[in-house]
């Protein structure tokens, strides 16, 4: 079970996450930054509910109203050229 | 530079219904969606209503699209929105090719699927249940020769039937084996309890059994105890609440799954492993509201298990505390596409009312709000119990947020 | 083309559509207008659309509606295009994703320039 991949993009397993959480006594955000789970290509869209669950289980806290993991733009991966607005038709 | 009255993100039932209301009131509207066809998740839906009529998502989408097109609605497909920027008196919608400036935004981005991670689930041939639905009903391509569904819930039962209708062979539906992430989906009792809510949908022995027994915890475990080893068949396909999928096997693609027996408590029975050859696997972990764009524009959230997760706070006219930002459809809670469509109407009318402030529109808006409730009460598919309680929680949260906002303004 | 659902008891017969030829990893395939790259390839039994950039593990479609990005491919030279959202066009050139050079693993370094001099040399300006 430990080798079950949770974050498909970064290939982070359940075991990886539990180990980090225990070793560093981490918050949700710290686990994300330490493991890169949820920080891959899809932006965590696939694994977010799973990671939330794992963190709730580790911290034994009920889900809070605020999003456990912050969402930051861009919510779809884009190239630096597109981000810079080159070639954009702003009318 | 053009400033739109409203940019609608998502061309599903909510987004299209909203666009129709806005266009009927002559607003400048653009609808954006990243999928190449309009309709959203509605496109793939195909099930028989309790009265025997078919709910055909392709036809329903077509009707909405035709109405929108007859009103000359600007619908741009294949466009992904990656940011909503808030300026003083307008919003800027960031897409890859273009920025859209607008006074109002309707975020109708629907839902994403929750995963049910099991070993081997990254292999080609493993897909979400929704992926199989779209491939089958929209693209009309078979997802494989023979498959198995991991995760037994309302959505996966409905889609299993759709795959069968398309002539795709399914070995069975079974639970995922237990881990932290899928603890609820791997609990036979909970799954049985939830299934009972689709009792009225299907004339099948299995579901009647669920319906009859689910109310009594004691009898429910009894029902599971006497659960036939070979599963109970729905439309000829076994549904196992006493078997679970432990892993998916294959080198370059799915070749088989390992199935184990589980007890009433979901514990694996030792030495019960069986290998079942399949070439595709559907993972059914349920849906959660896809609200990332509401988050980046600063909408506050509330957690509601009844509605499927974190919900952007909104009132009954689908307005969020961020003035000019509206939400409709599954982003506000997992419900049927009929409810989403009615919510879209409300949002469209609310935006029209804000821009035009007419008594006529206000009356229509009030009627539309009542229609959402009526549609919800009549819905044949309920994904979560206690939807109405969840909705009440969200309304209360909206009032509280607005009160706090006012108090803050007074302090300033 | 074998894997098409031609007759459907509720949705009816698959309508006649324009055939479209495109290329995937150097081979020519035929699909129909309104097919996505993913659906056209699956109709030919092709599931693997890329390899994980680091581990090389094979991947195919997972969500099929643009959320998971597992199906990203290169289309006419543009990288990271979602096969599940992109309709096929005549003569489109599609390439699967491959393992990428790894900056911290000498065996997987590839030919990415490590210095500015190497970069200029590769560009033919050294």
Automatic annotation (TrEMBL), chain A:
Residues 5-56 form the BFD-like [2Fe-2S]-binding domain. Pfam families: Fer2_BFD. It comes from the Bacteria. This is BFD-like [2Fe-2S]-binding domain-containing protein. It comes from Ornithinibacillus halotolerans.
TrEMBL record, chain B:
Residues 4-344 form the FAD/NAD(P)-binding domain. SUPFAM superfamilies: FAD/NAD(P)-binding domain. It comes from the Bacteria. Keywords: Oxidoreductase. GO terms for molecular function: oxidoreductase activity. InterPro entries: FAD/NAD-bd_sf, FAD/NAD-binding_dom, Metab_Enz_Cyan_OpOx_G3PDH. This is Sarcosine oxidase subunit alpha. It comes from Ornithinibacillus halotolerans. The lineage of its organism: Bacteria, Bacillati, Bacillota, Bacilli, Bacillales.
From TrEMBL, chain C:
GO terms for molecular function: iron-sulfur cluster binding; oxidoreductase activity. Keywords: Oxidoreductase. The keyword Oxidoreductase applies. The keyword Oxidoreductase applies. Gene3D superfamilies: 2Fe-2S iron-sulphur cluster binding domain, sarcosine oxidase, alpha subunit, N-terminal domain (3.10.20.440). This is (2Fe-2S)-binding protein. It comes from Ornithinibacillus halotolerans.
């Amino acid at each position: 079970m430990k080798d079950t991949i949770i974050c498909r993009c970064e290939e982070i397993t359940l075991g990886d996450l539990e180990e980090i959480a225990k070793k560093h006594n981490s918050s949700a955000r710290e686990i994300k930054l330490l493991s890169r789970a949820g920080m891959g290509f899809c932006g965590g869209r696939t694994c977010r509910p799973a990671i939330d669950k794992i963190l709730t289980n580790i911290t034994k806290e009920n889900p809070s109203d605020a999003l456990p993991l912050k969402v930051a733009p861009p919510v779809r991966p884009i190239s630096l050229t597109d981000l810079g607005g080159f070639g954009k038709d702003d009318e | 530079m053009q400033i739109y009255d409203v940019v609608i993100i998502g061309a599903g039932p909510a987004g299209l219904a909203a666009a129709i209301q806005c266009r009927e009131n002559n607003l400048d509207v653009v609808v954006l969606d990243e999928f190449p066809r309009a309709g959203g998740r509605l496109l793939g839906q195909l099930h028989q209503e309790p009265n025997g009529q078919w709910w055909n998502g392709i036809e329903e989408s077509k009707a909405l699209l035709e109405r929108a097109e007859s009103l000359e609605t600007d619908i741009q497909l294949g466009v992904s929105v990656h940011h909503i920027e808030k300026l003083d008196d307008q919003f800027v919608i960031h897409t890859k090719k273009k920025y859209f400036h607008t006074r109002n935004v309707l975020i109708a981005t629907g839902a994403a699927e929750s995963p049910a991670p099991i070993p081997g689930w990254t292999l080609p041939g493993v897909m979400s249940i929704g992926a199989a639905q779209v491939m089958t009903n929209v693209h009309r391509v078979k997802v494989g020769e023979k498959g198995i569904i991991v995760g037994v819930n309302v959505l996966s039962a409905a889609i299993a039937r759709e795959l069968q209708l398309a002539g795709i062979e399914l070995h069975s539906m079974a639970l995922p084996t237990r881990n932290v992430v899928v603890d609820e989906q791997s609990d036979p009792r909970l799954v049985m309890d939830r299934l009972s809510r689709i009792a009225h949908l299907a004339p099948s022995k299995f579901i009647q059994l669920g319906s009859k027994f689910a109310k009594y915890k004691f009898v429910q475990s009894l029902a599971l105890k006497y659960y036939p080893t070979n599963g109970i068949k729905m439309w000829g396909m076994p549904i196992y609440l006493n078997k679970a999928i432990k892993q998916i096997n294959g080198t370059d693609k799915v070749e088989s799954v390992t199935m184990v027996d589980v007890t009433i408590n979901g514990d694996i029975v030792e030495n019960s492993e069986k290998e079942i050859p399949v070439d595709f696997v559907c993972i059914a972990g349920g849906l959660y509201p896809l609200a990332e764009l509401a988050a980046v524009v600063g909408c506050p959230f509330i957690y509601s298990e009844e509605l499927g997760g974190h919900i952007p706070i909104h009132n009954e006219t689908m307005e969020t505390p961020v003035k000019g930002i509206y939400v409709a459809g599954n982003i506000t809670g997992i419900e049927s596409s009929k409810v989403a469509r009615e919510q879209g109407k409300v949002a469209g009318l609310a935006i029209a009312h804000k821009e035009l402030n007419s008594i006529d529109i206000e009356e229509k808006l009030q009627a539309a709000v009542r229609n959402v409730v009526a549609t919800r009460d009549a819905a044949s598919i309920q994904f979560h119990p206690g939807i109405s309680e969840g909705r009440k929680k969200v309304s209360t949260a909206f009032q509280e947020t607005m009160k706090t906002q006012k108090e803050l303004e007074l302090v300033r | 083309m074998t894997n098409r659902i031609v007759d459907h008891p509720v949705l009816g017969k698959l309508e006649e559509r324009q055939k479209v030829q495109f290329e995937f990893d150097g081979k020519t395939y035929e699909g129909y207008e309104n097919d996505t790259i993913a659906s056209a390839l699956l109709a030919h039994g092709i599931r693997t659309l890329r390899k994980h950039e680091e581990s090389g593990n094979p991947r195919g479609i997972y969500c099929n509606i643009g959320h998971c990005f597992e199906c990203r491919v290169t289309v006419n030279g543009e990288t990271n295009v979602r096969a599940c959202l992109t309709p096929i066009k005549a003569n489109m050139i599609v390439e699967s994703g491959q393992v990428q050079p790894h900056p911290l693993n000498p065996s997987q370094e590839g030919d990415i320039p490590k210095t500015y001099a190497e970069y200029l040399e590769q560009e033919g300006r050294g």
